Amino acid sequence: MVTRDAVGDRMAGPGIRATYLTRELGKHFPTTLNGPIKDADVLIGQPVRGFRKRRGQRIVYDLFDPQVLELRELYGNAPSPRQRIHLAAEWFRLTYALRHADLLMYAAPKQREFYDQLKSSDVPWIEVPFGIDLDETSEYGGRAAALHESKGGPALQNLVVWGGGTWEWLDPALAVDAIVKLNRDGLRCRMLFMGRARPNPHAIDRRRESRFDELLSRGKGLVDANADWVPYRERLSWLRAGKVAIMLHRPTAEAVHSIRTRLFDAIAAGVPVVATEGGFAADLVAREDLGIVVPPSDLEAVAGAIRRLLTDDAFHMTCVDNLVRIRPRFAWEVVTRPLIEAVSEWQNQLR
């Protein structure tokens, strides 16, 4: 298993996924994470520079993260020459993976539709969504409580939590504006960004830091942010310190084809979700009644959704019950079965 993302105490989606795929595969086969590629019979990972198989190896490309669509939003309508080169290189790596893999993994049906438009070979596919660790503890985070008590904030049940990053394709400003509006309308509530820094300390984006300062200023006195990315083992306790998890995005192609890995943290923590329509996360929230789905860029709808989840206890509890109900469906040992079966079949062919 190979990932170029940070793995360890602080992880984002790619690092988390690689860690758990390694754990589940390791129950059946000798498996290493970021070990020597040349010694492996099977290679699994995202299409990145230098990640190609040698003679006699099998390769599985994991396409759960539509990076080319993210980069298109990141670089905007007028990318620099260097950005255009980067985007072209990512498109090349993606199309190479689609044509030369022994097996392709996607995480949501909309992703498969997108990749099918680009794919001209007969490489087989398997669906492996993101997963949940059912063994994680259910302790509440003392640090989250201490933060808001020290700032004189309201009761923790009025806390709204933004669990992931604030990437260009997302809409954290809309969430902040909704919190400001609700307080002006008489409903006391606060918002917490779980971490402003990226888990990889070497990937500092000064522009994003500046935008984050603007967000905090926009919600002055009502919006807080942890300076660092929350350690992976603490993230659920931080989420449980609040009553609502929020994940908003702008209407883009990335949104349609994303899976939103932080949705699975909300499911694991049992915290109802406010999500923008479009994409796997919103579809699941709407279908399973895990919270409220709102139109993009709709301040009134976002504020109304937060208000209902903060004030309608019966509805909130129904959402919590549904979150608990669907957890087993996304246990890592469940979602990785197609991958384990595929590798087992290859193993049997060698005997």
Question: What does this entry look like structurally?
Answer:
Helices cover 46% and strands 11% of the residues. The protein has a 6-stranded parallel sheet, with helices on both faces. Strands 1-2-3-4 form a 4-stranded parallel sheet, with helices on both faces. Helix 11 (280-288) links the parallel strand 9 (273-276) and strand 10. Helix 2 (67-75) runs antiparallel to helix 3 (81-100) and helix 6 (172-184) crosses helix 12. The model is unreliable at 139-155 (pLDDT under 50). It has 15 helices and 10 strands. It has helices at residues 13-26, 67-75, 81-100, 109-118, 142-150, 172-184, 206-218, 235-240, 253-257, 262-269, 280-288, 299-311, 313-326, 332-335, 337-350; strands at residues 42-45, 58-62, 103-106, 125-127, 159-162, 190-193, 223-225, 244-247, 273-276, 291-294. The protein is α/β, with parallel strands linked by helices and 351 residues long. The relative contact order is 0.14.
Q: Outline the low-pLDDT stretches.
A: 139-155
Q: What does the main sheet amount to?
A: 6 strands, parallel
Principal-axis shape equals globular
Mean pLDDT: 89
Distance between the termini: 22 Å
Query: How helical, in percent, are the residues?
Result: 40-55%
> Oligomeric state of the chains?
single chain
Radius of gyration in whole Å, from Cα?
21 Å
Specify the structural class: alpha/beta
